[in-house]
């Protein structure tokens, strides 16, 4: 599965790692982050991108791919350990202006080896969403913490004194 992206050095395909701009969660602006192409729809010219993050949640998702090994990071042209969370995904046009090209004009920064991962099976195993829902972005709810945040050294913050 490949699709041509204007200005790209080669067609975009599943397993590619691309640089894509996502909004900061703590304010205005964009942040370029590595994203994994998990599906390319040749009929519509769209690609489904899995979010890449360097923040690793405590619970490992069954729909995530993690790159930690230094040799793998070098092969994939990643700067730091990255987890691609396939449940958090977005469907975009190949011409989307949020793709962040490098100095050579290419948005593809790396590629997973094709033999090890069945991209079609991975995408088909994700919770079913319509293309319109994917265009809006799929963001599964975060797991709630079992305990409230504690103060210094694990103690609860003191309560206000009660006056009788």
Average pLDDT, rounded to a whole number, is 78
Low-confidence stretches: 1-7
The run of helices and strands is: EEEEEEHEEHH
Strands of the widest sheet, in order across it, are 6-7-5-4-3-8
Alpha-carbon distance between the two ends: 72 Å
- Number of H- or I-type helical stretches: 3
**What proportion of the residues is helical, as a percent range?**
10-25%
Classify the secondary structure makeup into a structural class.
mainly beta
What is the C-alpha radius of gyration, as a whole number of Å? 19 Å
Task: Kindly estimate the percentage of residues that lie in beta strands according to DSSP.
Answer: 25-35%
Major sheet size, sense and barrel closure:
6 strands, antiparallel
* Number of E-type strands: 8
Shape: globular
Jot down its keywords:
single chain; 164 residues; mainly beta; 6-stranded antiparallel beta sheet; 12% helix; disordered N terminus
Write the layout of secondary structure elements.
Layout: E1 2-3, E2 12-13, E3 16-23, E4 30-41, E5 46-53, E6 64-67, H1 70-75, E7 82-93, E8 108-111, H2 119-125, H3 131-136
Describe this entry's structure for a reader.
The chain is mainly beta and 164 residues long. Helix content is 12%, strand content 32%. A six-stranded antiparallel beta sheet has the order 6-7-5-4-3-8. It has a two-stranded antiparallel sheet with strand order 1-2. The longest helix has 7 residues. The N and C termini lie far apart (72 Å). The N terminus is likely disordered.
């Amino acid at each position: 599965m490949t699709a041509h992206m204007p200005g790209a050095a080669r067609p975009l395909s599943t397993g590619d790692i691309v640089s894509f701009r996502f909004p900061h969660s703590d304010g205005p602006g964009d942040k370029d982050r590595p994203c994994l192409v998990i599906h390319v729809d040749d009929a519509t010219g769209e690609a489904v991108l899995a979010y890449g993050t360097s923040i690793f949640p405590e619970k490992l998702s069954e729909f995530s791919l993690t790159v930690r090994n230094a040799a793998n990071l070098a092969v994939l042209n990643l700067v730091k350990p990255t987890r691609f969370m396939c449940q958090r995904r977005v469907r975009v046009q190949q011409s989307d202006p949020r793709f962040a090209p490098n100095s050579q004009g290419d948005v593809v920064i790396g590629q997973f080896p094709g033999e090890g991962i069945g991209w079609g099976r991975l995408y088909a195993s994700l919770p079913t969403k319509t293309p319109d829902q994917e265009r809006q972005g799929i963001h599964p709810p975060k797991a709630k913490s079992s305990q409230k945040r504690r103060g210094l050294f694990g103690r609860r913050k003191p309560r206000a004194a009660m006056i009788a």
